[in-house]
Design a protein that fits this description.
It is built from ten helices and 17 strands. It is an alpha+beta fold. The chain folds into two domains: 188 residues, Fructose-1,6-Bisphosphatase, Chain A, domain 1 (2-Layer Sandwich); 146 residues, D-Maltodextrin-Binding Protein, domain 2 (3-Layer(aba) Sandwich). The chain has an eight-stranded mixed sheet, with helices on both faces. It has a five-stranded mixed sheet with strand order 12-11-13-17-15, sandwiched between helices. A hairpin with a 5-residue loop joins strand 8 and strand 9. It starts with 7 loop residues before the first helix and ends in a 7-residue tail after the last helix. Bound molecules: manganese (II) ion (2 copies). The site of one manganese (II) ion has 6 residues, from strand 5.
Length: 358
Amino acid sequence: MSAREQTITEFMIAEQRRFPAATGDFTALLNYVRLACKRISFIVGRGALAGIAGSAQTVNVQGETQVPLDVIANDIFLRTGEYGGHLAGMVSEELAEPYAIPDEYPRGRYLLSFDPLDGSSNIDINAPVGSIFSVLRAPRGSDPPSPEDFMQPGAQQLGAGYAIYGATTMIVLTVGRGVHGFTLDRGFGEFILTHPDMRIPEETSEFAINASNERFWEPPVRRYVIECLAGKSGVRGKDFNMRWIASLVAEVHRILIRGGLFMYPRDTKDPQRPGRLRLLYEANPMAMLIEQAGGAASTGRARVLDLVPDGLHQRVPLVLGCRQEVERIERYHAEHDQGLDAAYSSPLFKERSLFIQN
Ligand code: MN
Ligand code: MN
């Protein structure tokens, strides 16, 4: 071993030392988040041996089918988070209301929002899943939290990250000074800094979108995808590849490693749901990571981190990745909203499928 390895805890302590007034509470909180991720990684890694494979018969507060691991991972986050004394409350994908810290534990100054298991339908096929987390300051100190306390724009996040449980387990983290990746050394159970200062490459020829929703897309999204599919012969002048892993964590991880663009855009499938992904514990933490790595995150019409949340489980359209691609899509939305993309908005154009020639 040449240079001394740095664990995630040592990394956080080094960050903390940059701020002489820091109390260490934030470092300690992230230490508990790391512990929750390690516990979940252990169970996910046991797979069918853990005896909890298959779909549960339960449905969560948002009407989505829960697998047993959704419930177990949620419980691990709650039990691990409440113990440390650094939180005033938590919001989870799996709970309708904020979780108040039980009286037996001290309360702290931070709020934690999380998706305990992202992409959980990937479990049975042994494809990557993850956990996503976001840390805010509790606006009213350590009082029991109200839903409004969590409804801060993402730009106010103190830190954000995810764990990815794939071939290796990693935590990818930002505390507002770049994005750093840590790989779990299963031999001695520590996350080691392996990916310092992750940067999204400027250019890409990869995009990810769920093409089965094509008929519900808005014209600016259709325009973007058509141009990518046209490849070398089209206005982009180069061939693109398409990707889709059905796990936001895995999509963002790929983009942080080798660039690309991810879209779950606004569509017309269900007018009650202007997007699919949840702002507080999916879009906001991922937007902070992507921006900290030099990329951009947008709804197509606004920067994600500027949105003022209006509900704990609010859904938003999400377009993130390489900055120039996100800016291109924002421009297409603006041109559409100003009626400048007539060719792409005509009914004739709408009827033509991108994938089926007719
Ligand atoms: Mn999710
Ligand atoms: Mn989930």
